[in-house]
Amino acid sequence: MSSRERILGRVRRALADVPRDDTPYERAVERAYLREHGGLGVEATVDLLAENLADYRAIVHRATEEELPAVIMRLLAEHGSPYVLVPPGLPPEWLSAGGPTRVDDRAESTPAELDGVASVVTGCAVAIAETGTIVLDGGPEQGRRRITLIPDHHICVVRVPDQVVASVPQALGRLDPARPLTWISGPSATSDIELDRVEGVHGPRTLEVVLVGGE
């Protein structure tokens, strides 16, 4: 008898006296928990997102669609980035001509090559106001997960209000669990036993979030 058969046999014996229940799992387990707290309006939800992002030491900017290219180019220039990683589906109008050299997200790129790129610009899947969290799902505007983990500087564009939700349950309703989800709350950081904070350990040292709205 294999280990698998022994384990399954123990499970069967443990469940032998449990009455059969034909109630489907989704009805047997009550899920009446709150999906959001406080019922904030759109403007207040976006303000809460900006506040919580800043609490996590992300740098928050606001811009209109027309202002976005100039804002991105200014942030790249301030960081001194000679190269910028670009996901395959990044809108071309987000990056103006004459800026840093663009490096495409390619499957064959090595970690050493990616480490030589200072900045990356991406979109996002959703942003959660209550936790100040940006979620990436590897979509065309975001590229592979590794391009947002290796460069030292990440500029992430969030469309307001379409990509902003109040709570984690609302975000989960928008996300596909089969996709490679990356949850980002501020720049990469860790602390030792004495609570000395070190940033840039397993991701970008600097996270800049641009909230883009119509006004």
TrEMBL record:
It holds the Pfam family LUD_dom. InterPro entries: FTHF_cligase-like_sf, LUD_dom, NagB/RpiA_transferase-like. It comes from the Bacteria. Coiled coil: none annotated. Residues 49-212 form the LUD domain. This is Lactate utilization protein C. The lineage of its organism: Bacteria, Bacillati, Actinomycetota, Actinomycetes, Kitasatosporales.
